[in-house]
């Protein structure tokens, strides 16, 4: 029989000593709790239920964290069951030293090394935590208890648990790396004040931004994350632009920054004022649509708060168009004439159930069935269109309802046009279903520095950053390159 190396023998000896000491010790409240917790984690049931709770209570960030946790768990389980337990065929510990009240009713029959329960627990907790530190902090104690319960109930040695936990954390890291968007380039960092505890930050909270009531009001969450920030709450009776003007003056006086909590329409107002006064902007997502926050990599209040504390900021473009009364109106995301607002609404309603691509197809089909073409003059040519979409910077992929941008400071307008005409509905429907929208003769896209739209009728309307207004007969759209400094985590 081949003798084990001396180092291996010492490790086994330490393992057995630690196992024996845990078995001999009385642990308060553990006898009634840990065996049940260990059984609840069988087959990942505990983590699937936890993921459902996180997804239900945590909004978009919670759903992503839950998905990341389950994906990490699946990878860790596959590694343990297909490689780990077959590579090291270690027998289970003898249970003689473990009190009978602690022992599991159904003893596992697989080999001992590594612990699958510990791997699953660590993978789920790490996967959730890498996506959402707040939820990860809540899950981590439960995961640690499950891992310890495997030694406490006598079914694993401590080294089995440690090895399983290491596999779990590694699986979470792999899932995160695979899920990272490799098309993202790190934006350049620009100078912005690092506001310790938010001192010098003045935040205007739009409590009418369209989100359902939260368990913890946004103002309280902001004060908890940035206790020295000045928080101004706006209600339906307040003059929101007036409050924003007051806030930016206060921020400028102390060399600080302007903050805004709300959706894209709210952020649009804040961006225009911050850019004009040359004050950095901190965007806290809190509306029904938070497209700029999403493209900044911000999902939670704490994401922006961390960037504010660390002085992490970058410069982004703003785009402008001529409003009905001649004023220069900015937009940070999109401008459109035609059916884009309805298309986005339908796409977002269905994307959670069906996924992004099926929801985009459904939205295109719905709009084509219900929309009325709009007469415009583009490039001196009169055209009949269902949609003119203009993005502030380049949006990814072909399609008429894009969401994400890789670069928020590329100096261009992303112009996409869907034309009407003979058989145009059928052509566009076929292109949307087959995924060949970019090659459809009724769909075109260009990257421009400026755009002029003429010949709009009296009943024509335009939409920008979630707001809708009457369109003038002629609209000129232009860019302001790197016109706004915004706090952005990770730069």
Mean of residue pLDDT values? 83
- Radius of gyration, in Å, reads 28 Å
Helix/strand-derived class? alpha+beta
Number of helix segments?
A: 15
Instruction: State the oligomer.
Output: single chain
SS elements, strand count: 15
Give structural attributes.
alpha+beta, 15 helices, eleven-stranded antiparallel sheet, 44% helix, 491 residues
Task: Give your account of this protein's structure.
The structure is a single chain. This protein is an alpha+beta fold and 491 residues long. Helices cover 44% and strands 20% of the residues. The protein is built from 15 helices and 15 strands. A hairpin with a 5-residue loop joins strand 5 and strand 6 (328-331). The mean pLDDT is 83.
Write the layout of secondary structure elements.
Layout: H1 6-24, H2 34-40, H3 45-57, H4 59-87, H5 116-131, H6 133-152, H7 158-179, E1 201-206, H8 218-225, E2 230-234, H9 240-253, E3 257-262, H10 264-277, E4 281-285, H11 291-295, H12 301-310, E5 313-322, E6 328-331, E7 334-338, H13 340-354, H14 356-370, E8 374-378, E9 381-392, E10 413-419, H15 424-434, E11 443-448, E12 450-454, E13 461-464, E14 467-470, E15 475-487
Parallel strand pairs: 1-2, 1-3, 3-4
Antiparallel strand pairs: 5-6, 5-15, 7-9, 7-13, 8-9, 8-12, 9-10, 10-11, 12-15, 13-14
């Amino acid at each position: 029989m081949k003798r084990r190396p001396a180092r291996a023998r010492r490790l086994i000896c330490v393992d057995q000593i630690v196992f024996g000491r845990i078995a001999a010790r009385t642990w308060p409240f553990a006898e009634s709790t840990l065996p049940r917790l260990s059984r609840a984690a069988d087959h990942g049931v505990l983590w699937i239920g936890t993921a459902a709770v996180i997804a239900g209570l945590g909004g978009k960030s919670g759903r992503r964290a839950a998905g990341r946790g389950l994906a990490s768990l699946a990878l860790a389980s596959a590694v343990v069951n297909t490689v780990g337990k077959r590579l090291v065929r270690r027998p289970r510990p003898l249970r003689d030293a473990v009190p009978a009240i602690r022992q599991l009713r159904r003893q596992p029959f697989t080999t001992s090394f590594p612990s699958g329960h510990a791997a699953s627990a660590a993978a789920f907790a790490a996967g959730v935590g890498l996506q959402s530190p707040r939820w990860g902090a809540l899950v981590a104690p439960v995961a640690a208890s499950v891992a310890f319960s495997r030694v406490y109930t006598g079914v694993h040695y401590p080294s089995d648990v440690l090895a399983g936990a290491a596999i779990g954390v590694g699986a979470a890291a792999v899932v995160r790396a695979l899920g990272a968007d490799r098309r993202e380039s790190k934006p350049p960092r620009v100078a912005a004040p690092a506001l310790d505890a938010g001192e010098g930050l003045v935040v205007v909270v739009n409590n009418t931004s369209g989100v359902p009531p939260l368990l913890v009001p946004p103002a309280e969450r902001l004060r908890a994350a940035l206790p020295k920030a000045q928080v101004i709450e706006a209600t339906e009776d307040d003059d929101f632009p007036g409050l924003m003007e007051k806030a930016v003056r206060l921020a400028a006086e102390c060399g600080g920054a302007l903050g805004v909590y709300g959706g894209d329409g709210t952020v649009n107002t804040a961006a225009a004022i911050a850019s004009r006064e040359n004050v950095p902007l901190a965007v806290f997502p809190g509306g029904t649509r938070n497209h700029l926050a999403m493209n900044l990599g911000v999902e939670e209040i704490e994401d922006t708060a961390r960037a504010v504390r660390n002085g992490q900021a970058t410069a982004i473009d703003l785009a402008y168009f001529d409003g009905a009364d001649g004023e220069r109106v900015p937009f940070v995301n999109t401008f459109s004439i035609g059916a884009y607002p309805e298309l986005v609404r339908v796409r977002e309603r269905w994307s959670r159930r069906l996924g992004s691509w099926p929801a985009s197809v459904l939205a295109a089909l719905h709009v084509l069935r219900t929309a009325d073409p709009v007469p415009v003059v583009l490039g001196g040519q009169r055209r009949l269109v269902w949609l003119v979409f203009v993005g502030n910077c380049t949006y990814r992929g072909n399609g008429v309802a894009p969401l994400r941008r890789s670069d928020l400071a590329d100096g261009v307008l992303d112009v996409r046009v869907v034309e009407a005409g003979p058989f145009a509905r059928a052509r566009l429907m076929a292109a949307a279903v087959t995924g060949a929208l970019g090659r459809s003769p009724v769909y075109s896209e260009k990257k421009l520095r400026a755009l002029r739209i003429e010949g709009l009728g009296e009943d024509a309307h335009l939409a920008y950053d979630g707001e809708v207004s009457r369109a003038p007969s002629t609209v000129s759209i232009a860019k302001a390159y790197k016109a706004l400094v915004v706090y952005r985590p990770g730069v």
